[in-house]
């Protein structure tokens, strides 16, 4: 009788280990997935952090548009509904995720979601390796704390705007800078700059 109880307890113990192992494996897989997706943000901003006015960009910089296309092609891009409407169409060769609070909003060729968290989740589920947050101000402010890398085009001018990029904290370290001078197609000097989040572990 006593032996039976001991055997039963052993049996339960191994079943428990098996179940926990399975759970631990699932948690580790989720964590790995989370770690393997880099969240990047891309923006062009002036010295005074202006990024837009009347739902439009503040400049026409063909080299910057090319840079944006090269970096984001083949990836998921996340944007607010206003930025989507200022672009006016889904960008080719990218999965566009548009965030709105409007539950009825629908767009052909885009995924529409009702929260920034849902947008991140979809990219993660689709095993994206580098997701790009492409604006505008509201979405940058919400998702900057979740971002690992920033691609900032620093445009060397002070300019009026009604949409602004948030001030960067000391957590960010510049890792690359490429300078471009103004010419007949580019009214301002600008730099392509890459920042990565600095943590005490990095
Ligand atoms: N220079 C650059 O690199 C750059 C890049 C992108 C955009 N821009 C500029 O930025 C400006 C637009 O920025 P913005 O701040 O006005 O608009 P936005 O961030 O593009 O979009 C704001 C909209 O996103 C939705 N939204 C925001 N937070 C949400 C939440 N927590 N849950 C669900 N939906 C949410 C709401 O849509 P609903 O109102 O539909 O609910 C909100 O009105 C424009 O001037 C544009 O040209 C500049």
Structure explained in plain terms:
- This protein is α/β, with parallel strands linked by helices and 202 residues long.
- The protein has two domains: 1-36; 38-197, Dihydrofolate Reductase, subunit A.
- The chain contains five helices and ten strands.
- The strands form two sheets. The protein has an eight-stranded mixed sheet with strand order 5-4-3-6-1-7-10-9, sandwiched between helices. A two-stranded antiparallel ribbon has the order 2-8.
- Helix 3 links the parallel strand 3 and strand 4 (95-99).
- The chain is elongated, with a radius of gyration of 23 Å.
- The model has no long low-confidence stretch (mean pLDDT 91).
- The structure holds NADP nicotinamide-adenine-dinucleotide phosphate (NAP).
The beta-strand count equals 10
CATH H level, superfamily name of the largest domain? Dihydrofolate Reductase, subunit A
Global structural class: alpha/beta
Number of domains: 2
CATH architecture of the largest domain: 3-Layer(aba) Sandwich
The SSE order reads: HEEHEHEEHEHEEEE
Give the overall pLDDT as a whole number.
91
Q: Return Rg in Å.
A: 23 Å
Q: Characterize the largest beta sheet: strand count, sense, and whether it forms a barrel.
A: 8 strands, mixed
Instruction: Enumerate the strands of the largest sheet in spatial order, edge to edge or round the barrel.
Output: 5-4-3-6-1-7-10-9
Into which percentage range does the β-strand content fall?
25-35%
Bound molecules: NADP nicotinamide-adenine-dinucleotide phosphate
Give the N-terminus to C-terminus distance in angstroms.
58 Å
